[in-house]
Amino acid sequence: MTSPWWSDALADPWRDPYAPAAVVVPAAPLEAGSQPEPVRDPDAPGRPGLRQVVLLSLITALLAGSLGSALTYAFLRGGAGVPSLGAQSAQAPALAQREPESLAGVAEKVLPSVVTLRVASLGGISEGSGFVVSAEGHIVTNDHVVSGGTGKATVIFNDGSSAQGKVVGQDPESDLAVVKVTRTGLKPVEFGDSDALAVGDPVLAIGSPLSLANTVTAGIVSALDRTMQAGEPGGPTRYYAAIQTDAAVNHGNSGGPLVDGAGRVVGVNSTIKSLVADGQEAGNIGLAFAIPINQAKRVTQDIIGTGKARRTVIGAQVGGTGVTSGGVRLNAVEPSGPAAAAGLRAGDVVLRLNGHPMNDPADLVALVRKYAPGSVVTVEYQRGTARQNASVTLAADAK
What we know:
The strands form four sheets. The chain has a six-stranded antiparallel beta barrel. The chain is an alpha+beta fold. It folds into two domains: 204 residues, Thrombin, subunit H (Beta Barrel); 85 residues, Pdz3 Domain, CATH 2.30.42.10. Helix content is 18%, strand content 33%. It comes from Micromonospora viridifaciens. GO terms for molecular function: serine-type endopeptidase activity. This is Putative serine protease PepD.
């Protein structure tokens, strides 16, 4: 039976040695206006000392530096979730290490020889291109670049320097002119053989299209012996059997070089085809035409040597086309000319010249101008119903 006394004494420390006990001392009464003494928990963390602060800062700095280095290394190695972009490849060669036959190598070779020409005239300033052909300062360009001017031109070189040039001579019908500057250290171009070109050969057009100097565009030879009859209203009619290319050519390219894959000049960029109406500004549509360099070189030598160019003629006047067989009809034959000496007569219809078909009177004139005086060409013609061949030795005109 449980004792009532014992149950009342369960919390009495004097009776139960295991009961918790505490000694309470009554607090003294506070005086008026005084504050109670602050109480601090002895188990609470204390305020850090100076040594603890320094040690904590040092540890934090070391951890931050180690973490930053690790992240940087991981980023540079493509780690930490950031992928390495692009495939690994050999380092691109410097310009001086380009292969000579590469497009960059060809451009590097030819650009120092290409110039920009500015010519003042009553209509303002016209601009075109040209290229150095002799160490003495002769520069080839188009006649239509310098025509209408004062006989002088400002020549701007590849390095940005300039010099005054003088027009030595020009041939409007072949659209070629020669300008000369007094300057040393010029680098002439290397000439190629335009007769050796084939459709599909790579070419570069170099010049200053739309006043953008030192511009290089690339393409291929898209046709050969494309007969051209060009000219401005009231001006001369120009004939030539052109090299057709799809390299981008625009206004300002006129007179600049067309270059083959070995860096040799094979043509003089001269004209473009466009879809715009007369009087509108034409732009490139991939049909550009250059004077073959074999013809241009011959005319240039004539101009430098005599001040004018010889034109190659066949000694006949052409009229319309043939009625049934195509070709071009000879309206008249000069009695002492090359055609008469080969047995051709007025009324004969020329079908082919050295294998090239005749479809328009301009075709015969342009193809004859391509050859040098003294060249022998084969003419296939029709007289009545019979077809015949004749060997014609072309001559220079008497002008």
